[in-house]
Amino acid sequence: MTNELYADGIGEITVTGTIVRIDLMSLSATERDASNNPKPVFRQRIIMPVDAFANAVDLMQKALAGLVEAGAVRRIGDIQQLPATDAQQSPSSANVSPNFN
User: Closest by alpha carbon to 16, among 58, 48, 42, 44?
Assistant: First the structure.
């Protein structure tokens, strides 16, 4: 059996010398901010050498390109180029995650 970890996103990426630290975060089920939205909380950290990080970024960019091509997500710049009627009809289908900007 393998362990799986769910993350809502990346909280921070820190580069120190030749090491990259990626902090994964999830939205808290119990903690809320001033607007009553779930607070992002640290869950786990990925630590890797910079060359592995560069390879991971390349792989993620390819995966993102496939998702954009399949219509699963839209990049923020692409939304601004749509005619106003398309953007007004389907704003909920736009991906507003900061991880895809």
Answer: 48
